[in-house]
Amino acid sequence: SQDEEVSCDFDAELLHRTCRRLQQLCHLHKAVDKSQVDDIYEPASEEISPEELADELAMPPKKVSRVLTHVSRYLPLWASGFSKRVTFGDENPIVLPAFLGCFEIGNCHMARDRSDDAPLPVTIKADADFRQLGNFLFSRALASGGCHPLLLEALKKSGIAPSSLVQCLFHEWLSSSWATTNRRSWCLFGSLLKSLVELAGEEAYFTASLTMSPWWRSIRTVLAGSANVPAAYIGTAIVSYVARSFLRRPSPPKDSTTDEAVESPPPAEDEEGGKPPTPPPQAPPSGGDHDDPVIINDDGEIEEESWEPVVIELDHWEALLGKLEDVLVLASLLRRRCEKRQLCPESREVSLSSLFARGQGIITELVSAWACDLEMTPEDLQRLTKLTFPNGLEAQEDGIDLHFVRVRRRFARSLELDSLLVNCASEQLVRWDRDRDQIDQLAKASAFLSAVSSSILKNGVGLIIWKTFLQKRFEALVLLMEKMGKTPKDRICRRDVEISDIHLEPFVRFCTEVLDAIVDASLGPEAETLPVLPQEPLWDGAPQDPSRPQSLVAHALGQRPPNMASVRHHQLLATVVQVVVLFGMRSVRPLSLFTPTVRKAFFQDLHSPLLAPSAGPASSLTSSPQQSFLLRAASAVMQSLPDNPDASVLGTTFGWMNRLLDLACSWGEDRDLVRRHCVCELYSAGHDILAQEVSLAVKDKALLASCLLVIAGQRMHHLLFMNDGHRPNQMALLPPHISTWLLSLDLSNLRCLNPPTLQTLNLLQIIIGMLPEDHSEHRLALSLLDVLESLPEPS
Questions:
Q1: Which three-class secondary structure state does DSSP give residue 561?
Q2: pLDDT, tens digit, for every residue of 768-788?
Q3: Residues 758 and 790 in one domain
Q4: Which residue ranges does the record annotate as region Disordered (predicted)?
C-alpha cells in the first residue's frame, strides 16, 4: 500500500531505485541487442550523390563539394589506418554484465521531486570504455536508419544523460571508418545526433548573442582532440549544420495597437471548475540559415529585411572547420611515403588539440621528422620550398611535391627553409641520441646545420646542439685521453662517453663542425636583423598557455651570445682530439697543451668569460709541447697519404695541414716550421710534386734547403751503396768528403727509398736554387748533383 511504501527506510528505497536503474539498462541492452539480430532494416547504400547529401544534411552544395573534395583527395593516405568494427548476427560486442558494469547503478542520491514514471538518471562511470559502449549502442544505427526509432525510444527510457549518449556516439564516429567508407552514414550520423541533442532540451539551445554554448563547446573539444582527422573534419561539417537547428531567435515585440483592439478572451475553466492546465512549452522554432534574431535599427524599429547577423556560436563552428581542414592537409602529408626510395614515414597521431598543446613549433617539428623519415637532404628541402602552386591543378591528385606546396600555403611561416633545416638537424640528433650506433645521423645533422642561411639562427642552434648533445660526452672523452694519453678502448669508451670507440672519429668531427659553425656564424653580416616569428593563423583564437613548449627557432634566437674566445679554445681542443683519434697518435695529453687558465674555461658554458689569453709565443730556444705535437701531427697527416692519392684525399690532407697551421698561429708557434716539416715529409714519401706546391709558402728557403739536402743525400745513399747496379763504380766516382757524408746519414726516416733518379736530380736543382752561393752547403749540393749526373744508367 501507499502507507507501507512511504514507511520504507532509506536502504529499501535505495535498493528499489537500484533495481529500477538495472531494469532501465536491461531494457536498453535488450532493445539494442534486438536491433542487432532482427531484420527490421534495409542495408544502407554506400552510393549517394553530393546533391542528396546537401539536401539531407541541410548543407549548401558548395560546402558539401568542398568537404568531399578534401576528403577524397587525402582518403587513400588514411585507408590503411581504419578498421570497421561492426558486428552483426549473434555476435554481441558487450554482454549484459559487462554492459551494466559501465554505469554507476547504486547511486545514493534520491531526488524526491521526480515522477514515478520518469526514468531514473543513470551515470556512466568515468573509467568506462566509451569507445566500446559507443560501438555497441550506435554501430547498427550508423549502418542503417531502420533501427533509429526503436533505439531512440530505448535510449530515452534508459535514464542515460543525453550528453553522455552524444559522447558515446562521437567515440564510435571518430574511432571507426564510418566517415570515410560510407557517405550514407553521414546522413545517419547527422539524423541520430540531432535526435540525441533534442533529448537534452533547453541546454542545447543558444542565441545569436551567446558567446559560447557549453553544450556545443564540449562537442567541439571532442572533435578537436581526435587523431582521426578525416572523421573529425566531416563530423564538424555535419554538426555545424545540426547546431543551426538549435539556434533560438527571440519573438518580435507585439504591436500595442493590435493588443488594444483585439482582446484575448478570458481563459475558460475546465470541467472541474479549476484553472486550466498550463500548456506545455513550445519547442523553440528550428532555424536554418535565415532563422535570425530580430535586428533593431538606430531608430528602434525592426528591420525585416536586414543583413544576416553574426551568430557567435556558429562562427566557432566555422572556425573549427577551417582549422581541421588545415590539420587534415598537414596530417595527410605526414602519412605520405616516398615511392622512389620505398621509404615509409613513422606513424604520428596529429589532432588540433595536440597541435595547440605542443606550441607553434610543432608543425615545423612534425614536417621535419617526416622529411627525415624519407631521408630528404638539404637540397631536397631547398627544392620543395621553392615550388609554387601550378594554376589549374586544384583537383589534381597530390604527389609529394604538390602536397607539400598545399601544406606550405597553409603554414608558410612554419615551413620556411631555415626553420625546416634547423629542425631537421635537431631531429637527426634526437635519433642519434636514442641509438648512438646510428652514427651517420651526425653527418646528416651537420649537413642541415651548414645549409642554414641566417647567421643568427645558425649560431643559436649550434649553441643548443653543443649544450644538449655534445658537451658532456666531449668532456668525458677529453678527460679519458688526458688520463690515458691515447684514444680509449671500446669498453671504457662506452662506459664513460656512451659511444663505441669506432664511432669516436665521426663524433669528434661533428663536435668540431658545430664549433666551426658557431665561429663562422659570429663572422656573419653585421647588418643581419633578428628574424621575426609571426603567429600562424591556425593559432588565432587558441587558448594562451605560458607553459606551452617554445619552438626551436624561438629558443635559438633567445640564446645568449657566446664568448668567442671560449668557443675558439674549444675549437682548438676539438681539433687536437680529432687529430689524435683520426691518426692514432699516442702519448698526447690534450689538456696539457693549454695553459691552466684556459683549462679552467673548458667544459663551461660557451658564454662564460675567459680571464686570460691561452699562451704567449713559445721560446725559440726550446721546443715546447705544442711545437712537438704540431710536428708529430704534421708527420701523421702527411704519412696518411697513399701512393697515388686522388683529388678528394688531397683536399682532406691539405685541409688538415691548414688546421695545424691554424693551431700553430693560435699557440704562437712558428707556422713556417710546420710548413717545412710538411714539405720534408712529402719529399720523404716521394710526393715531390705536392712538396713543391707546399714549399712555395715557406718563407725561410735556405733553412728548407738544408733540410731537403739531407733527404737528397739519403736518396743517394740508397742509390749508391744499396743498389747493385751502381756498386762497382761508386768508390771511384765519389770524393772522400761526399762518401763520408753520405755514409753518415740514417735512412730510417726515409719512406720512399728508391724514387726515380730524375726526381732526385730535380730536388738537388731546387735545393741549389734556394741556397745562397756563399752558403756552406751550396758546394755540397753542387757536388751531389755532379755525382748524380755522372752515374751511368743501371743495366
A1: coil
A2: 999 998 888 899 999 999 888
A3: yes
A4: 250-296
